[in-house]
Sequence to fold (698 residues):
Amino acid sequence: MFIGVSGKNIISFGSGQPDLSPPNRVFRAMFRYRNFKYGLIQGNLNLRKALAKQYPKSTADNFVITNGASEAIDLTLRALSKVNNKKKNRVLLPRPYYYSYPYLIKFAGMEPVYTNLVEGRIDFDDFKKKVKNCKAVIINSPSNPTGRVESMETLKKIEKITNDLGIYVLSDEVYKDLIYIRENYLIKGPRVITVNSFSKTYNMCGLRIGYLWSLDENLVNRVIETKTHTSMNTNILGQEMAYEATKTPEKFIKKQVKIWRERRDFIYKGLSDMGLDLWKPEGAFYVLPKIKNPRAFVWNMFKKYKVITYLGEWFGANDRVRFSYALDINKIKEGLKRVKKYLKIKGEI
Amino acid sequence: MFIGVSGKNIISFGSGQPDLSPPNRVFRAMFRYRNFKYGLIQGNLNLRKALAKQYPKSTADNFVITNGASEAIDLTLRALSKVNNKKKNRVLLPRPYYYSYPYLIKFAGMEPVYTNLVEGRIDFDDFKKKVKNCKAVIINSPSNPTGRVESMETLKKIEKITNDLGIYVLSDEVYKDLIYIRENYLIKGPRVITVNSFSKTYNMCGLRIGYLWSLDENLVNRVIETKTHTSMNTNILGQEMAYEATKTPEKFIKKQVKIWRERRDFIYKGLSDMGLDLWKPEGAFYVLPKIKNPRAFVWNMFKKYKVITYLGEWFGANDRVRFSYALDINKIKEGLKRVKKYLKIKGEI
Fold:
């Protein structure tokens, strides 16, 4: 996926990582911390206690600190696959989806079932029909790759139906602090597992500090049992840096959202003005326009125009291309210029 | 397993982690490193290049950096479970074994098959009989929990038979730098995957930097593909610290082995003098004596004598107890005094 490709004159709308800097205070841990012994498998107590203040009815016991949100999802699915509640090992997935979900579901020996998004949002009628035969559902709002945010109404209906039917909800909320239209709505319930991370909010992707939160004590214990064997504690210094990040004032996040919103407005207008069919992003930093020949587009943009984009088919959207706008607005401008040039030559706009 | 239990007057022969300090130079990375973006899934190039110098016929491509040796084993088994070479999904395991192996084998949807050690070493006749029906075998020399090192002759016979039969060898060599009787012998072959770590050699357990090495390109690629979804890159700062550790002069390790050998001699003599039946440790920092009532022993030593030991049954050795001697010699002395007192009262010695 061109990860790690860089070079002069390349414009990357590829990888989904912020180009901004982490809060200064996270570096403090690097100057201070000196204990490199094994830590608790569940995660450092100071970090879990700090997180507990951000979630309702919670103590440090409701959290497991993981190697990024990825490991939190992997461990949760591995744990869920062993829950014996007479439900079939199926997981319902809105499509387009984050590209790792189907892999992780299959790795855990489960089967993905898809509900197609309508205008980038969950079609609750279809969801309702399909969820009955599943053990779990993955919700990802704000969504990578659609950039859409589900309505409060839909999220509350999902809370109710999954609770009524005894279905687990794995809610991937790694973009919860990057929403342009309202505050995040935390999905709640006795079988909800929320996954989050320090990567996107605090620009610490490479440190791989994520976590899961759940009020389901059994599920949390199963995850810890699994992690005891699969990776043990999460990097202890990274956890100390994440702990420092929890002390970051709210204004750090607000300042960032302002930057993301400007970029969002800029790229949305730019692509719309070309006449492309796309959904207005409401969160995260992706936009997923329809493109006539996506494979030719992604390939040629890279080879001939030095612009990196990701194929929609990696995310279950065969007729689209994903642009990450996690880059400087001047670069976005230059990238859009090249996109426009290509599409004009091809007669696609 | 009493992990994380500490307190005044407690003597812990429990957790297997060095009490010594990391090389000073690993701290340098903490003062210098400032890039927290995603890294390569396979691991930092500087670290992999440094490791390639330590392994024959190797380049950076033959390595994957992981969240400790645990993740390297987990990823390898997950990758092996998907290899379709008409062999049954069985993994041969010498018993006693490191307690996570059977879990990880089962997590990957495979089945553990056991060959019982004789005098703490592989019985090659039994091994030979059982290995034919397996897809892979795990070798762990020096061994946790036995402290034994396999003979060169056995290791070479294992190399040959597995190569002849097309069977994978997962060689867990995390204690390769802590051997008292000879240099480590690296098992080689086209289907060998060697797992190692910075935890034990450089006293960096909590940073969770491990790796796997293999000349099997397909297997390495499968592991990278899996890790792309399950955890992405390993903590990028930890990798920089591990890179610094690779520059540590040989004498650092020699000095450590001297300390470990003194402790080994001391605890081996102490337990032998009590009349306990045990194997002389040849590597790592564990000893696994027979104990008449292991469950009562472990429980009472902890509750009444504040001495932590681990039940042999966690490692597939029902009639034994594991002592880690990764602690100061004065503490070992005090711990042994308490053990002797208990065993005398119970009339077991």
In short: The longest helix of chain B spans residues 250-273. The first strand of chain B starts at residue 11 and ends at 12.
